[in-house]
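Hi R.,

As promised on Friday, here is the backbone we talked about, encoded as structure tokens. Could you run it through your design pipeline when you get a chance and send me back a sequence?
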């Protein structure tokens, strides 16, 4: 195995559940990546809203190295200092009283859903188990989370889905009024749908969900796996929306690229997870916790968060300028540095065709469904990299339009 791996090895050795681009990045620094051939790219994808501080940020690298020399893993038979510091920091900076640590967004959501069911079971009994979520929602790939998610294709072919789950229409409160009742234990929602098309949740809609949950003694769960940790311009999106959930899930940018997830909850709810009701071998791993703490402390500052809003305006201006020339977008939207450009009627379903052209031009982007070009770059991406990346993206769009 001393030979350098190639993209063909993916087909030879990997389970075919992904279709990665042809280039293999081997090194990253800030918002730039280099592939095996030494070609350089500007990264507007950010590991799908994960690399909140770009690649190999010195603060995260230093923290990881220092922790690696100290202590890697203990199991949950012992607690450890980095996990305790991370939990304390999350509690001090949010609505939450208690934190459960795990290793991914799907796991954080699995824990949130199980906690909601268990809490309702203890309060009211077996019948209070209904969960309301939304079409196009994405909550992860565990069997419970694909069932609660609103894209049926992800649950198809895996046997009977768990019962008691119903889906409303995002940003349509009336659709929820028809679904929620006293048997509902939780409403799970993304404050802005990410995978579903970079669709911001309206404040009145989210507040309406809060009120409906209160009226039916149900829990409001915010999935902030994609929107959290500075992405929208506040530590968590709920803080700028002014609607507070009972449970919040976080992952992705929480570790800046190191796998970590967290479920945050109020005391009233968290107490339903008694000894032995839930767990994870890697939850609260010292390496992951140390890096997450460093990421939060770096990001949750006025300089970084104000910078996110300034960069949002730049992304929007550039995308609108590209659109003024080529007319490929119907709308540019999003919050902070989760930005989506929905394709115009003539280009419907063609968002993904931009990606390989963009890579050829030296910029990496994402899609969110067939119609939305998505960007989730580093929260501290230099403004010069935004300008250069957008010039490259414009060339990709020009090529799409020239050779449709
Ligand atoms: C809103 C949301 N929730 C959950 C997940 C799943 O996270 P993970 O892939 O870390 O399990 C994602 C991933 O895209 C997400 O965007």
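Update: got your reply. Pasting your designed sequence below so it's all in one thread:
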């Amino acid at each position: 195995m001393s030979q350098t791996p190639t993209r063909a090895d993916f087909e030879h050795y990997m389970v075919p559940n992904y279709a990665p681009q042809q280039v293999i990045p081997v090194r990253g620094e800030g918002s730039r990546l280099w592939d095996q051939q030494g070609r350089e790219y500007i990264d507007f994808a950010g590991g799908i809203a994960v690399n909140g501080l770009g690649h190999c940020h010195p603060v995260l690298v230093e923290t990881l190295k220092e922790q690696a020399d100290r202590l890697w893993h203990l199991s949950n038979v012992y607690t450890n200092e980095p996990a305790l510091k991370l939990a304390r920091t999350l509690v001090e900076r949010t609505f939450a009283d208690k934190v459960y640590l795990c290793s991914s967004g799907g796991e954080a959501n699995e824990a949130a859903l199980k906690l909601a069911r268990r809490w309702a079971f203890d309060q009211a009994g077996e019948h209070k188990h209904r969960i309301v979520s939304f079409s196009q929602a994405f909550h992860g790939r565990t069997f419970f989370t694909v069932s609660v998610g609103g894209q049926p294709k992800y649950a198809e072919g895996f046997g009977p889905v768990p019962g008691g789950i119903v889906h409303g229409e995002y940003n349509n409160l009336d659709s929820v009024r028809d679904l929620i009742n006293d048997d509902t234990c939780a409403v799970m929602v993304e404050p802005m749908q990410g995978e579903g098309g970079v669709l911001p949740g309206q404040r009145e809609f989210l507040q309406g969900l809060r009120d409906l949950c209160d009226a039916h003694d149900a829990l409001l769960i915010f999935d902030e796996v994609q929107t959290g940790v500075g992405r929208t311009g506040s530590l968590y999106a709920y803080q700028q929306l002014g609607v507070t959930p009972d449970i919040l899930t976080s992952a992705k940018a929480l570790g800046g690229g190191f796998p970590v997830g967290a479920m945050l909850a109020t005391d009233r709810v968290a107490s339903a997870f008694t000894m032995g009701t839930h767990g994870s071998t890697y939850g609260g791993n010292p390496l992951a916790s140390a890096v997450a703490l460093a990421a939060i402390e770096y990001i949750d500052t006025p300089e970084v968060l104000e910078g996110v809003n300034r960069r949002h305006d730049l992304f929007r201006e550039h995308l609108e300028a590209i659109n003024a020339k080529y007319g490929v977008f119907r709308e540019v939207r999003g919050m902070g540095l989760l930005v989506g450009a929905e394709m115009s009627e003539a280009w419907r379903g063609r968002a993904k065709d931009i990606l390989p052209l963009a890579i050829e031009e030296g910029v990496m982007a994402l899609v969110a469904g067939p119609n939305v070009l998505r960007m989730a770059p580093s929260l501290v991406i230099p403004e010069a990299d935004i300008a250069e990346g957008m010039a490259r993206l414009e060339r990709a769009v020009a090529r799409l339009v020239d050779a449709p």
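One thing I noticed while checking it: Residues 48, 104-106, 109, 138-140, 190, 194-195, 223, 225-226, 251 surround pyridoxal-5'-phosphate (CB under 6 Å).

Thanks again,
M.
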